[in-house]
Each structure stands twice: as C-alpha cells, then as structure tokens.
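The passage that follows is intended for readers who have already worked through the single-chain material. We present the inputs for a multi-component assembly, then the predicted structure in tokenized form, and finally a short commentary. You are encouraged to pause after the input and sketch how you expect the pieces to fit together before reading on.
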Amino acid sequence: MRKILSWFAIGLGGLAALAAVLLIVATVNTNSRAARVYDAPWVAIAIPTDAASIDLGRHFYTIRGCIGCHGENLAGGVMFDVGPLGTVTAANLTRGENGITARYSDAEIARAIRFGVKADGTSVFVMPSAEMTGISDEEVGQLIAYIRSVPPVDTEPVVQRWGWLGRILVLFGQLPAYSAEAVDMTLTPPASVAPAAAAEYGAYLAIACTGCHNPAYSGGPLPGAQEGEPPALNLTPGGELIGWTLEDFKTAMTTGLTPSGRHLRAEYMPWPDFAEMTATELEAVWLFLQSLPAKEFEER
Ligand code: HEC
Ligand code: HEC
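Having made your guess, compare it with the prediction:
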C-alpha cells in the first residue's frame, strides 16, 4: 500500500513538474510573440474631410464589424475578463483620455487597421486584422475620417493580460492573440473598389463574416465559444441556405428572420449591424456566397 502511495506521489509530482514546464514554455512563447516588432509597410492615405465620406466611414465601421468590439461610441471596452484566461480590451479609438487617436498619426492608424501593427511596431492583440488587410485605400481613408470625427470619450487605461490558461491556449493556437502574425504584409490592396451587385464585390465585404463562419464559410463554433452558444452556420451552397432566394437572404440579414421562421439571435449573429448594408451590398454578398463551392458543415 505504502509503495502504491509513493508511486502515486511520484506520479503527482511528475504531473506538477510537467504543468510547470508547460506554463514556462507558454509564458516565454507568448512574451516573445508580444514583443516581436514588425516591419509593416507604411500606408500613405488621403483622409477625406467631406460629410459624405465620413458617413461612408461610419457605414463601413458598422458593416465590417468594428462596432461589435469598439462600440457605438468608439470607446472600446473589455471584451472578456476571466481570471485564468486573461483580460482583453478593445482600444478606445476616440481622442479622449486613453484613446489612441490623439497620439496616432493617420499613417499609424492606417497601419494598425490594415496590418495589425501598433505605432511601436508590435502586434495588435486579438483584433482580426487579417480580415482588414485587403480593405481599399479609399475605405481606410473613410474609416479614419469617421474615427477622427467622433466626440472624445475618456476611458480607463487599457488592460491586456493573459492568465495561465490563456497563455497555454495561445501556445496551442486555440485563441487568436497576435493579430499581425496572420497578416500577409506583401498584399497590395486596391486603391478603391466600386460597389456592384456582383460576387467579386461580395467577396470584398463578406470577409467580415469569416471570423465566425470560418474562412471557408462552412460554419463552426464561434471563437472562444462557451457551452451552449450556437455555432455559426454553413453559408455555402452545401449548407443552411439551400432553397433560399435573394429576398429570403435580405430578410434574414435585415430582420433576423429566416425562411423557416427562426429568429437569429443578435447577441451571436450581429444582423442588426448587417441590416445597414445597402441592397447592392446584400445582393453582392448573396451572389458571392452562391458562387462558393458546396461544403459540409465545418469543412475547410
Ligand atoms: C473582434 C474584435 C475587434 C474587431 C472586430 C475590431 N477590432 Fe480594433 N481592436 C480590438 C482590440 C482588442 C484592440 C486592442 C489591441 C491592443 O491593445 O493590442 C483593437 C485595437 C484597434 C486599434 C488600435 C491599435 C493600436 O495601435 O493600439 C485600431 C486603430 C482599431 N482597433 C481599429 C479597428 C477598425 C477600424 C475595425 C474595423 C474595420 C476594428 N478595429 C475591428 C478588437 C477588434
Ligand atoms: C460574430 C459572429 C458572426 C458574424 C461576424 C457573422 N455571423 Fe452569421 N451567424 C452567426 C451565428 C452564431 C449564427 C447562428 C445564429 C443563431 O442560431 O441564432 C449565424 C447565422 C447566420 C445565418 C442564418 C443561417 C440559418 O439558416 O439560420 C446567415 C444567413 C448568416 N449568419 C450570414 C452571415 C453573413 C453573410 C455574415 C457576414 C456579412 C455573417 N453571418 C457574419 C455568427 C456570425
């Protein structure tokens, strides 16, 4: 009996040692990735000042999903704060206290949006920057014009912190962390993209769906999903939208009501933001989704 107990103790000790090593590896890994300085290209962008462009900036801020993290007043706020996981805060984009825009030049904001790189060259935390790299120069200009136009909001200093579990999940690629890592810094985005009811324009917009519906648009669990949260659904012709018409799609995206009478839950599927899409934008996204290869749920 005593022998068994001592083996048990050795086993436990071994496990504890293993956990300690794992934590050290995860800490070194995440710290070095956080400190990495990126040589991201500078973007020379003209920032418009007319009301129509600022309004387009507000439009894209909404339909690209920035609003979901940075909020209606652009002041950001805590996205999650869970002891062992960590704390992630979306930046305050206003020129208020602890906002970034009083300190940042237009070129620095443009580089942060497009490449996920901060003014000091380190990576932005958690923001899906790879979805924004291809945004046209013109639209980045409109976004910045809008960001610069909003009233200042004062906030507390931003806290970004990984807990031990967060670090281990980041080490194993289970949590998105350092945005710049996923960005293609060699991409040359278009100067401007003209709206058109065409699949190509739909692809340009629908990249904002990939963070949840996955890059193949075939659905799957939401990033960091808790038990009981619905998965994002399969938007390819192999999935949920079989038999839908363009009108059905427009209704679902603007009212949350699907042809089968189901109500999409806005806290998981942000349709009220997509409801701001124009008829042309919705048709473009629809045509793009219809042009995709049919996939099974979660198939990449
Ligand atoms: C999934 C949530 C999320 C979305 C969507 C998102 N952001 Fe962010 N963003 C963040 C977080 C979190 C930070 C703070 C990053 C940090 O401090 O490292 C941030 C930081 C920023 C920064 C400042 C970077 C810096 O240098 O400190 C800018 C500018 C920005 N976001 C603009 C945008 C714009 C414009 C959009 C839409 C096109 C957008 N964000 C969409 C989460 C998001
Ligand atoms: C923040 C995550 C998120 C984003 C971003 C997102 N979706 Fe969704 N989507 C979901 C979730 C979750 C559901 C399931 C909602 C439910 O069951 O209530 C869903 C459901 C849907 C449905 C309904 C399918 C059905 O049969 O019921 C459609 C259509 C859809 N999304 C289209 C889109 C499009 C197009 C975009 C991009 C313009 C997009 N979604 C962006 C999370 C997201």
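Commentary: Residues 65, 206, 208-209, 211-213, 222, 230, 232-233, 235, 240, 252, 258, 262, 264-265, 268-270, 274, 285 surround heme C (ligand 2) (CB under 6 Å). The two ends are 52 Å apart (CA to CA). How closely did your sketch match?
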